[in-house]
Amino acid sequence: MKLCMxxxxxxxxxxGACFSDLGNDVICLDKDNEKxxxxxxxxxxxxxxxxxxxxxxxxxxxxxKFTSDLKYAVSKxxxxxxxxxxxxxxxxxxxxxxxxxxxxxxxxxxxxxxKIIVTKSTVPVxxxxxxxxxxxxxxxxxxxxxxxNPEFLREGEAIRDFNYPDRIVIGSSDKxxxxxxxxxxxxxxxxGAKYINTSRRGAELIKYASNAFLxxxxxxxxxxxxxxxxxxxxxxDISIGMGLDKRIGSRFLRAGPAYGxxxxxxxxxxxxxxxxxxxxxLSIIKSVxxxxxxxxxxxxxxxxxxxxxxxxxxNVCFLGVTFKANTDDMRESSSLNMIPYLAKKGAKIKYYDxxxxxxxxxxxxxxxxxSDIKTxxxxxxxxxxxxxxxxxKSLNFKNIVNRKNFIVYDMRNILSSEKMxxxxxxYFGIGR
Length: 432
Ligand SMILES: NC(=O)c1ccc[n+]([C@@H]2O[C@H](COP(=O)([O-])OP(=O)(O)OC[C@H]3O[C@@H](n4cnc5c(N)ncnc54)[C@H](O)[C@@H]3O)[C@@H](O)[C@H]2O)c1
Hints:
Shape: globular
Distance between the termini: 52 Å
Helix content: 40-55%
Mean pLDDT: 97
Number of strands: 14
Strand order of the largest sheet: 3-2-1-4-5-6
Bound molecules: nicotinamide-adenine-dinucleotide
């Protein structure tokens, strides 16, 4: 099939590369010219395991193309995926849909024959209706159809998630559209992915409800971890014991810092705004948002306690600063709260992240990036394992830290507390 992905971010680039790998002709378009020229040179603007090889292979084959020319991209494609960002609005908690609406206005100029326009971006329920209205102002109804196909991939595992999704959700009531989209996904369906056809609004809401539920699971286990700490129970036993119940499931039951990333925080906020619009009270999701905010504060107060409330001039090392492992994405990472707070209190912070320097900390006094783990840890009073990269799982801290009484605070429970005890290291985890 001939496809076009508008917005070459985490979702557009990964799904574009994967669709082309399945044998489709894919044009990836972004208004960011720098991104497009980098991609044409084989430079991948984001870190996602396996993506570079996949992009290079399919670009070389000619099936994957990059452009900023919208007229070309629309006229050459039958199916157009909108994959632009839907961040939180500046002055409210609602999703900012301006990128989606701008794209809708821009593409309608070039629709001359039938096109399927698919929102892959996460958009509040009824956004598809609004996109339909925008396009139908200039284009005859028979020349286009609007479908919703929310994306469920996880950063860090995006290629695997795309190729082996739990489910593919298509929201459309148009027969022709459903037939074409099902055919597009048939290689994944034949490998076992469940295919669900629902209304467009239904598909939009499935995405928000799923993200809100996952955020709830994380906040739930984080709060149970607090109780574990008070009662000398190991949270891992609870996660395993609960997760084995098929009605609950083991995934997203690992206690850690406040959830972050480009989806859960903004999507939980946005669904609350949507519920207000439709006069419905989503009280559970509201308390999840509150719980997650409290989590950030709680972990900061734990850090203060570990340093006996003497943060000034303490050397603090962060291992990993992204919101989770295997991504370079800093959006709403809990380190964005922690590092500036501790720096303001006078801590001297070094951080190491496998994906390198982060511009977010560039202008913060007393915060510096180290290009290797040893330099980052060397003079530390406190080492905070903030993300669960494999790189941090077998470090010998005794060999790399110069200080005697340093503390390790493992916010992901990736180290063995028994081993740390044996090595005589002051070690704290979450809910342990
Ligand atoms: N990142 C994830 O893990 C993930 C997973 C599932 C769903 N989503 C959803 O997918 C959407 C995209 O997320 P993302 O993380 O890929 O965003 P992103 O910010 O990484 O990428 C969006 C891209 O769209 C481009 N863009 C914006 N306006 C444009 C326009 N008018 N024309 C062409 N390009 C334009 C931007 O330049 C940018 O490159 C969001 O709605 C998000 O909630 C994200």
